[in-house]
Amino acid sequence: PDYMVPSAWVQLDALPLNNNGKVDRKALPIPAQDALLSRAYAAPANSLEETLAQLWAEVLQVEQVGRHDNFFELGGHSLLAIRLVNLMQQNGLEVTLAELFQHASIESLGTLLSQCTGAEPQNDGLVVVRAGGADIPLFLVHEFSGLDAYFPALGLHIEGDFPIYGLPGIPFGEAPLRTMECLAARMVGIIRSVQPQGPYRLAGWSFGGVLAYEVAMQLLGMDEDVAFVGLIDSFVPRLTDQGKARWGDEHSHKRQLLQHCTLYWAARGEAGQAALAHLALLQAELEQIDFQPLLRRCREEQLLHPDMAAAAPEDLWHYLDREVAHGHALAHYRINPLGLPVHLFRAQEHPTELSRRHPTLGWSDEVPATLLRCFDVPGDHQSMMQSPHVQVLGQAISQALHTSAVIEPRAYQPLLTIQTGHTGHAPIFCVPGAGDSVTGFIHLTEALGPEWPIYGLQPRGLDGVTVPHSRVESAADFYLRALEQLYPHGPVHLIGHSFGGWVAYAMAAQLQAAGREVASLTLIDSESPGGNSVVGKPYTTTAALLRLVESLQLSSGKSLGIDALTFAEADDATQMRLLHEGMVHAGVLSDRSSADAMRGPVRTFATALRTVYRPALAYTGPVRLALVDDPTLDALGNQREQAAMLEGWQREARDLTVWYGPGNHFTILKAPNVFSLAAWWHDGLTVAAGQVVS
């Protein structure tokens, strides 16, 4: 079969052996370009194949197409694939786009048409590049345009007995997602619909590599194993994101259109100089001309990339709209530690000045040397996905996949003893809010009295190294394992503050389902689940940081002196410096602390803010909810906000007691307000639920 025919031959004096005398596959060299086999031309075998070859040659603008040639290796991509499918249907050859992706040679597609069989059903948002196989699937993530052309071109040359799936961008016409975290969350949903549990293997080309990195991050945040992360010529975002401002105004789509045209004509050399001059004039008028007139002028003056010229105007708008969303996502994305090996496949031909200055494409600044694996492959950024270079790339990825393995994540113990208490009292387990520490419950511990055993469940990620949980249920599972090791039997009290209230609710539901008694469940100023207020929104890193600044000012009662506009326009390093300086100025941090001291809390806070929680498992026991006023709202505003929270929790908890306490979201846990909270909590151990206490 085709997939077992070697694409390259490398002559060795001897096979490398390990200490056990077996072939050491890790020591086998990646084939060089001169080792590649050239595919001999094979003429079409019948009239159907001849028709297909003519249509392919017309679309690809090549003189000759052999029956074994691959559409995508010859330069085909999604826009050309759409044109080819339409052209074939006009000629009475009914083929879907999915079928073309799975049968990308004249011979294979001709056989499909002769047999009149349909392609394997596609999951929503999924391209089946290679079906079947017993090993762990590989998921390939779309590049910047959202197109999926490289999936079959690369998948053809990745060896192994496992399925390969492609994850294309959001379909045209659907609302684009504008953060990497939202894009990755969509990918995670699609991936888990095919493979519910890990270990997972991921790879992506260019923009897709960064997105695959975030997908891996979210899977780790669900306590799933990730066995492979492959970045195919992917730069870290700060080196290529072109700045936040470029993607955030009404001119972004026009800029992107002109950039495509400029890149096309710049590659034409002398023949493109006149077109470039016209484009420069249009660039100068960019802010005075709307998109449709600009597109019309580009079309009339024959400035469009040929693929764009052939596309319908509405498809072209959707295409650019998706790219602008991806540009916005990349410009606002922050790389955080993954704690896993990262495999970087670098194109070696025609390096840019940027790649010469950053030989690891910036990843050595983000990934420890012990975890960064670099592979050099022939071709430049584009040609590495075309024959013959894509064959070497496929071999390199095959080798890396063969040697990769799941690495145990760094051990993390969330349970911290706040107070040992006295025997005979059911223990109290406290879950802090977003980005907060268990130290926030110190004052509540003092107010409750010395007799109670009190423990804090420290959120993962605050240390700046471990990956925060990306699902409420995953955090609840993780905390319960620690709780049950300490207290395997008997009733427990649960208290959750803010976002921690969601986790405490999920823990109570799981304990109840397991037959374990929940002595009490208390939620302190926790939004109701469902993403209908502050938490559960698609925050960029900057938006999350500005939320954190507001929270710190509310908690400390002091201004951090941060100008929101200046802060929003700053780069990542400047933002962290401004945050640190503001916290030192307000006395929240010591002036001896490092500027990186807040990276863990910032990351954990942002992850919690983006988390959407809709309880799949209900808790039917008594729930006690403490509500406080927001000092930034007037009386009517607080009344509306608290009514919404109460209504939301009443949908989740049939047995609800509500108390309106003193202070604000943070000072409710500080003296003197915390003593009122503690008294209400004590009283609730004997007061029947279903009451409203003022």
List strands and helices in order, with pairings:
Layout: H1 47-60, H2 78-90, H3 97-102, H4 106-115, E1 127-130, E2 138-141, H5 150-155, E3 164-167, H6 180-194, E4 200-205, H7 207-220, E5 226-232, H8 237-240, H9 252-266, H10 273-284, H11 291-300, H12 306-310, H13 313-331, E6 342-347, H14 353-357, E7 372-377, H15 389-403, E8 415-419, E9 428-431, H16 442-448, E10 454-457, H17 472-486, E11 492-497, H18 499-513, E12 518-524, H19 541-556, H20 564-569, H21 572-585, H22 599-610, E13 623-627, H23 635-652, E14 656-660, H24 673-684, E15 692-693
Helix pairs in contact: 1-2, 6-7, 9-10, 9-13, 16-24, 17-18, 19-22
In short:
By secondary structure, the chain is an alpha/beta fold. Helix content is 40%, strand content 11%. It folds into five domains: 31-119, Non-ribosomal Peptide Synthetase Peptidyl Carrier Protein, Chain A (Orthogonal Bundle); 125-241 and 333-409, 3-Layer(aba) Sandwich (Rossmann fold), CATH 3.40.50.1820; 245-331, no CATH class; 415-531 and 615-693, Alpha/Beta hydrolase fold, catalytic domain (Rossmann fold, 3-Layer(aba) Sandwich), CATH 3.40.50; 541-610.
* Share in helix: 40-55%
CATH superfamily of the largest domain: Alpha/Beta hydrolase fold, catalytic domain
CATH topology of the largest domain: Rossmann fold
> How many strands, which pairing sense, and closed or not: the largest β-sheet?
8 strands, mixed
CATH architecture descriptor of the largest domain? 3-Layer(aba) Sandwich
Task: Give the total of domains.
Answer: 5
Rg is 29 Å
Structural class: alpha/beta
